[in-house]
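Obj.: predict assembly geometry.
Materials: sequence records (below).
Method: joint structure prediction, all chains together.
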Amino acid sequence: MERSTIVRVHEGLHARPATRFVKLAKGFESDVELVKDGKAVSAKSSVKLMLLAVKENQEVTVRANGADAIEALEALIGYLENPRAGLDDEAEAQSPANDAGQEAAPAPGSAPAAPDGANRLRGVAASEGFAIGPAFAHFPPDIAGQGRMLQAEEIEGEIDRFRMAVGAVQARMDHALAQDSLSAGDRGIVAALRDIAADDTLTGEAEGLIKGGNDAVSAVITAASTIAAEFSAVDDHYLNARADDVHAVGRQICLVLLGQDDVSLENIPEGAILIADDIGAWDLARAPLKRIGGVVCGHGGATSHIAIIARSHGIPAVLGLGGQVDALRTARDVALDGNAGHVIIDPDEATRADFAGRVEAAAKERAGLTIFKTVTPKLADGRIIEVAANIGSLEEIEAALEAGAMGIGLFRTELLFMRHMHLPSEDMQAETYAALAKAFAPYPVIVRTLDIGGDKPIAGIEFPDEENPFLGWRGVRMCLDRPDIFKRQLRALLRAAVHGNIKVMLPMVSDISEVRQTRVLVDECTAELRAEGVPHASFDLGVMIETPAAVLIAPALAKEVAFFSIGTNDLTQYIMAADRLNPTVAKLNDVTNPAVMSAIEMTAKAGVAAGIMVGMCGEAAGRPDLIATFVKMGLTELSMSPASIQRAKKAIMAMAAEG
Ligand code: PEP
Ligand code: MG
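Observations (raw structure tokens):
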């Protein structure tokens, strides 16, 4: 008995949805298979399901055979057709399904892996910050099998030994999951490993090899390599990273078989820099993270589990050093710069002093600034300056609140589009915007509509080849040409606006007609939602001022919108005609250039004269040396990365005190 359907599960049968699907399937006696493109796999194995790489909106067939086949088909088809199914654990911050989107880190794989000098190495900057400390080399010996074939009479015993080892690893992971001390993010990672250990794909493959005469350790090593290779071959970043997880689980099983404990990180000295060729996420999640000063690793990139754990615990990390990491095996001390991806082996006195100074200065500054977390900066004339956060994902909410953000001045929605394999659905977007609104209420949350162009292509939008993508089809220009995408976002925003604190702003505006056309679409969306009986509310519409054209028409624009937010990053590059990504013209790309400062002043004047709020969300908003100037120009909102918030509040208070 079989039935076909189109998969509506958000994001397809990825990690957690695959596990849920398997749980559901296992509840039935019948044999159940899922078929995609003629390939059938057991619906009772989450690893096999993940490897089938079923995506949202693809057609699949569910096949069931047995006494409860009808019920099984009904339940499983119901799950596949539920668009909310993949959202079940959106709230699990940094669950593996969310890994790819840890945008706090630079793009993976961007760092060259060539030595800079005898004792300087360069890798992937995976978690920001500076660290210097004693090296703690963690190079557990390679695990090898017995290297002989088993006799027929040994096989049964070997299978028993293997099953006991698997049981022990599962129990260990269950125990880890039961600990309250595990953070939500780390719990998601351990749970993903537990799923692999509990799945019969790895164990089945290994048992097959044992039956063929391999000893258990050799069988596990081979089975893990085979399955990891399948994960590596899938065209999906998230699934590629699962290859490391399969190896990690395989290693744990082998260690139990060999009666060995993994080299423990338990004894890592305070402030030490952990050096390894590869650290299993499982090992790192259980390590005394508070004591680890930094992480340096041959494997891994910005989206690997190690990077995610390091970032969420504020540990600077440089990963992806490749074979260069061998040079660190005998290092005594290591300095690392997680912002640039640099590692220095046994630094000389001057470098030591430099790094020690940076680490100390950062810690001192952090400690001295915490008193500003709850401060509401007020000027002598009573005006409140809102110091808000720029973020791009729900995972950053905690850091923004922790820093004392007075709302969100820029929610970059690009990531929402880039981290998924498909254009995000309206429901998924509405939930994301609503979660933001709730987290920061009563402060405003300004969501920027999709600001993307041909330099950052995303799945589902065909960008033309352009000579100058920065001057091309991007931001509001692209959105207005693709009302199918734009209206989906606007509808989601109207739905989230029922929370009362959502504002919306348009990027890359250069002509007043762009605002007017957007309003027409907003009205259309409102009428549709009303007709459908979907709860919604209106929102304030503002614009980013980041093109010279917008500055020059600011007085006219101010009459049509509720607020301005100055995007100094783009405004500087466009005013100065100096590419913001080109280091050769970096000197020109200077916000303090009088040309840029006068554009900011013109914008502020136009906004103040029209009585609308003028804010800033470019990098310059967080610069303590410029804040007083901006505030004097009339800006009442400054939005920045959470790390700059307390420093900015301090600068405003100092200015207020001066009168
Ligand atoms: C800006 O241009 O200043 C800005 C805030 O937007 P982005 O950096 O995302 O282009
Ligand atoms: Mg911009």
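Conclusions so far: DSSP finds 23 helices and 20 strands in the chain.
To do: check interface contacts against the pulldown list.
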